[in-house]
Amino acid sequence: MSTQTITYDLGTLPEGARPQSVTASPITVDGRQALRVTLTDEASKGEPNVDFVDMPTFLMIPADFKNGTISVNLFSKLRDDAPPYARGFAGLAYRISDSGDVFEAVYLRPLNGLKTNPESPRDKRAVQYFAYPDWRYERLRQEYPDGRFEAGANIGPAEWVNLTLEIDETHLTVFVDGAECLSLDKTKAEVTTGNIGLFVDIGTEAFFSELRITLR
Asked: What is the pLDDT of residues 44-92, one digit of tens each?
């Protein structure tokens, strides 16, 4: 099977990248070239489930991605204006339609990471899969109380972590710092081809470096 790998150091905005309710700017963090991605002021002050909370809030990068591997290093922390329920949400969106209204995503909640010693059930909610628009986290929790679309991870806020997604049709495996954290045999969206996104949510200031996309 032939493969193609595309890499971005994220020291600059990738050609054709489009912000969706976010701002994105190059910055150096801990000696790394990175993109700082955070919600726009308008989105941050908007309505939950309209402007944020598992919505199309990402820097969209042109891609022809259907199956393969996506890997990025990310560092997220709370903004000064973060609401109490913010957890440093940051991750990857994939198979994004050109209009941005259909996609799948996996994001991290570092403040739920095992390094923060969270109480149950937060200790099993550091990694989240969702599919927009129909299968956001609240519906997944309600209809699948076994928590199969979430998982714990040995992470904490304000540290660099590697997030890697292996995607094959409806099968998804999520690795955090090389450790398998979540494996789904059947995800909640139709298999399509689309773009890649650097995803953030409310109250988060995130930094992304060394994006690697392998098409298969």
From this structure: 999 999 999 999 999 999 999 999 999 999 999 999 999 999 999 999 9
Q: What topology does CATH give the domain 4-215?
A: Jelly Rolls (2.60.120)
For residues 163 and 71, is the Cβ–Cβ distance under 8 A?
yes
Buried b (16+ CB within 10 A) or exposed e, 91-107: bbbbbbeeebebbbbbb
What are the angstrom distances between the C-alpha of 125 and each of 36, 38, 87, 164? Answer: 24, 21, 10, 17
What is d(CA 73, CA 92) in angstroms, rounded to the nearest whole number? 10
> How large is the C-alpha radius of gyration of the chain?
16
Instruction: Decide: 126 and 117 in contact? Cβ < 8 Å.
Output: no
d(Cα 127, Cα 105) in Å, to the nearest integer? 11
Over the stretch 133-155, which tens digit does the pLDDT of each residue have?
999 999 999 999 999 999 999 99
Q: How far apart are CA 92 and CA 121, in angstroms?
A: 23
pTM more than 0.85: yes
> Beta-strand (E) ranges in 49-160?
58-65, 68-78, 90-96, 103-108, 127-132, 150-151
How buried is residue 108: exposed, middle or buried, by Cβ count under 10 Å (0-12/13-18/19+)? buried
Domain ranges of the chain: 4-215
